[in-house]
Design goal:
It contains 1 helix and 11 strands; from the N terminus they run E-E-E-E-E-H-E-E-E-E-E-E. The protein is mainly beta. It has one domain: Lipocalin (Beta Barrel). It has an 8-stranded antiparallel barrel with strand order 1-4-5-6-7-8-10-11.
């Protein structure tokens, strides 16, 4: 059996995002509370699966006021929707060390299919404490409005305060079970 099961190490994993601000620059942020399980089958990638949960309350953009607004009902509404989840439905290898993972992303109480472009998993290594580790990176783009995240403000010069497209990047360190 070529399946290997890993847990996502929350201390060494992040979910980042980037969105246009004032139509002139990008604002970046991240969530630090990433947990979950990855089952990797190198011989038959279709037998692989990913389940991940992000603690929406951990959003951090280096600005406390903005973070509070993102946690509010205008955006993530973390009181009502404290987690963001992803569950894979299809895993494909597309090249050496590259794959596509299709799955259901649930954000703000709305579930939509997304496709992650994945680099990895990296070859396994032993950490100084004897644990077997691997890692992977993934990215995708979503439209905020598809998930009911529609708050915005019109600008005097035309355009809007917050962009519609959100670029998402994931960096995960995996601990072999």
């Amino acid at each position: 059996m070529s399946q290997v099961t890993y847990t996502i190490d929350p201390a060494h994993s992040t979910a980042g995002f980037k969105v246009r601000h004032l139509m002139v620059a990008n604002v970046r942020g991240e969530f630090s509370g990433v947990t979950g399980t990855v089952v990797h089958d190198a011989e038959n990638p279709a037998n692989s699966s990913i389940q991940a949960t992000i603690d929406a309350r951990t959003v951090h953009t280096r600005d406390e006021q903005r973070d509070a607004h993102l946690k509010s009902a205008d955006f993530l509404d973390v009181e009502k929707y404290p987690t963001i989840t992803f569950v894979s439905t299809k895993v494909q290898k597309v090249g050496q060390g590259e794959g596509k993972v299709t799955g259901n992303l649930t954000l703000h109480g709305v579930t939509k299919e997304v496709v992650l472009d994945v680099e990895g998993p990296a070859p396994e290594v032993k950490d100084p404490w004897g644990n077997t580790k691997s890692g992977a990176s993934a990215s995708t783009k979503i439209k905020r409005s598809d998930f009911g995240l529609v708050w915005n403000a019109a600008l005097e010069t035309g355009g809007v305060l917050v962009g519609e497209e959100v670029q998402i990047t994931l960096e995960v360190e995996l601990l072999r079970k």
